[in-house]
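Why do we bother with holo predictions? Because pocket geometry can differ from the apo form. Keep that in mind while you read this record for heme C.
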Amino acid sequence: MLAGCVGGTTSLSPTPSEAQAGQVTFPLGTATPSEVCGRCHAAVYAEVAFGTGADLKWKPIIYKSLTDPLLAIPGPFFDTATGHHLAGVDPWPLRARDVENNGASCNTCHYPEAFELPDLERDQVIHEPTPRTRVEEVVGVTCASCHLTPDGRIRGRYDPRELLAPHESVRDPNFGTSVTCAFCHSKGPRVVGKQTQTFYEWRDDYFNAGLGPEQCQDCHMPPVVRPLAEDQGTAPRAIGQHLWPGSHAASLIRQALTLSIRQVHGYGRTAGTPLEIHIKNVGAGHSVPSGSNRRGIWLTADVIDGGGTTIVHNEWLFAPWYASRPDDRAFLQADENLPDAVAALQADAQGPHETPVRAGEERVLTWTPQLPAGTFTVRVTLLYDLNRYNDRSFTPDQTELARSSISIQIP
Ligand code: HEC
Ligand code: HEC
Ligand code: HEC
Ligand code: HEC
Ligand code: HEC
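The structure, written out:
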């Protein structure tokens, strides 16, 4: 049986190719399992449920300490599936809401009801979507989550009069644009540096700032040409791939940032050896890392002597804040009284850190290690960490993004 398949609830025409629009309906709304659509849209389903054609990987993760249980994607789901398909069974958010939220369903964006798309100009603040009831959560973000309108029609970019669809379809000119993703990838109002700001970061820092015209789909759903549905006798058309590579795809996270280091000649005014580390966001249409406050990118710098020994080490963390102000240990006592105390304490206990690198931004960090005379190698690396709160020695959730080094001479 296919993952999450429940039969008998949706009426399917026996010969869909001859079907009239309206013969296939979806009474379960956004809780309609994607398998129902996958019966006709097989190639799209293979991308969504198996990750066919991408390097997606959801390795087991630990919540905090090395003695915590490994949280792995449960069968019959594949750990190479898309994040959307796994959203209902991904054990990490489920564990997080038990620990941080007393088990209450906070993950409204992980399982919402059907919604109208917001307007790019009018809706400056995006409000959380309405969640489904708890018993309807397990199917996660389904095909219907994005495609079903509140009045039960399937939205897409094509004019239904050009299609042979057995369901009621409607052309939405905004469907190919970033507003399709806004509801679940932002939580208003905009706060620079905070978590869950991806759509705003795209809108304000990238699109409206004139950095480029690309929508979320251009980078996360690049198109191919093939029939929209199989075995229905329909002609091939352009369709965006349904793979959504993100922080679980090494090939994508490696495109986001460039890393370089240079020695600054201080004209004898500064004690020590000034170095500049440049981190530039060249590939993402939003901040990096983006989204959940759990994401982090570690920058490490090592000065290595002629014998290969590291004699000085330094480290920075780039991550979204949990709340609307910088994470800081100074708030630990005040956090104790918050309803979300566990999550707030977790972020503040890690202390202050660099904010994410915004779209188009070049972040320059200066560092002045105290070194004796000699020749040294300075090596910098960037490491993506899916869960910045768990034990640093747990490496399966980490991916090296970039590495750079220079040789310096201290007279
Ligand atoms: C019985 C077969 C069948 C089922 C079940 C089915 N579809 Fe379709 N769908 C089609 C066919 C056929 C087309 C038209 C393809 C064409 O003419 O190129 C289509 C068209 C579409 C389009 C394009 C609409 C547009 O205006 O751009 C979308 C999007 C879509 N389907 C999504 C879904 C989703 C989501 C589900 C499940 C909730 C689903 N379909 C279930 C057969 C099906
Ligand atoms: C996260 C939101 C999302 C989910 C989940 C999703 N789609 Fe789509 N789908 C889109 C977007 C956005 C496009 C338009 C792509 C583009 O702009 O290139 C699209 C395009 C399509 C099309 C082509 C019609 C068109 O408008 O381009 C079909 C058919 C389709 N999806 C079917 C499905 C099926 C079947 C599933 C589940 C197996 C599914 N989709 C899941 C967002 C989604
Ligand atoms: C109905 C809510 C919803 C909509 C609409 C939606 N997403 Fe998502 N998306 C999610 C959730 C929830 C997750 C994470 C699931 C998890 O990790 O358990 C996710 C994950 C992702 C990821 C993977 C992130 C990672 O860390 O690997 C990408 C990329 C992504 N979405 C892009 C998009 C794009 C592009 C669109 C619009 C075409 C879109 N999403 C629309 C809810 C949504
Ligand atoms: C110009 C290309 C581009 C555009 C436009 C773009 N992205 Fe991304 N996105 C990337 C790259 C590259 C990454 C990997 C770096 C990272 O993790 O931030 C990424 C990562 C992500 C992630 C994973 C973030 C994390 O760190 O966990 C999500 C979710 C996501 N994008 C959603 C979106 C949404 C939603 C939009 C539109 C509002 C969008 N993206 C627009 C290129 C793009
Ligand atoms: C505004 C919509 C939204 C709300 C509300 C939300 N989430 Fe999420 N969550 C997302 C999206 C989108 C992602 C995908 C990754 C990203 O953007 O970094 C995600 C990712 C996650 C992840 C990482 C999953 C992985 O496997 O990498 C965890 C854990 C998580 N959410 C837990 C929660 C908990 C617990 C709550 C309630 C306190 C919650 N979320 C509320 C949208 C939301």
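Residues 83, 90, 92-93, 96-97, 100-101, 106-110, 128, 184-185, 187, 196, 198, 291-292, 294-295, 386 surround heme C (ligand 5) (CB under 6 Å).
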